[in-house]
Amino acid sequence: MTGFVEGIFLSPAAGARMEGVRAAAALEGCGLEDDRYCAGTGHWSRFGRVCEVTFIAAEDLDDIERETGVGVKGGEHRRNVVTRATSLKTLRRGERFCVGDVVFEYRGPRSVCRYIERLTEPGMTQALKGRGGICARVIEGGTVRVGDGIEVLQPREERA
Asked: Rounded to the nearest 5°, which phi and psi values hold at 146?
């Protein structure tokens, strides 16, 4: 998997507007600084479902807008990191990947619920179904920047 970060979005609290940023500090065991998931105020945080950082493919967002007309390019997708030229769907649970100097671990696909429609527009849940991105946790912190490269790390036993 190779590719790059096309966009980064943060929201200070559940339901707050997503704001695009050029860089974000990734904190080990927390997520992205100044984001609702790291602060523990995200909608899913209240249900005990930990998802430190969310990723979504720009190609899926392109398809959603083209196929449905639902606007997703300004952070309406409610995901933190938008990737380009990266196949998120090929990751396996527990697999690690680098974004710039930050190491993440894939935790699983990001589910989509109706709550997102209350924050955005009708049709958003259906538009994201099957292409809602992934959840990851921060293994080694650092700074994630727009333009950073993305690569999957080989399992430790294969690196030697």
From this structure: -60, 130
Residues 11-19: contacts with CB within 8 Å, 24+ apart?
11/35, 11/36, 11/42, 11/78, 12/36, 12/39, 12/41, 13/39, 13/41, 13/42, 14/41, 14/42, 14/43, 14/45, 14/46, 15/43, 15/118, 15/119, 17/75, 18/74, 18/75, 18/76, 18/78, 19/75
The structural domain count of the chain equals 1
Closest CA to 59 of 134, 135, 131: 131
Using a cut of 0.90, tell me whether the model's pTM lies above it: no
Burial of 155 (0-12, 13-18, 19+ CB in 10 A): exposed
Q: Tell me, what amino acid is at 81?
A: V
* pLDDT per position as a tens digit, 107-124: 988 866 655 556 556 666
Measured CA angle at 23 (ends 61, 102), to 5 deg: 90
Q: Which two tokens stand for residue 136?
A: 């990851």
Q: Containing domain of residue 17, as a range? A: 2-159
Give the type of residue at 76. Answer: E
| pLDDT > 70: percent of the chain | 79
CATH number of the domain where residue 72 is located = 2.40.33.20
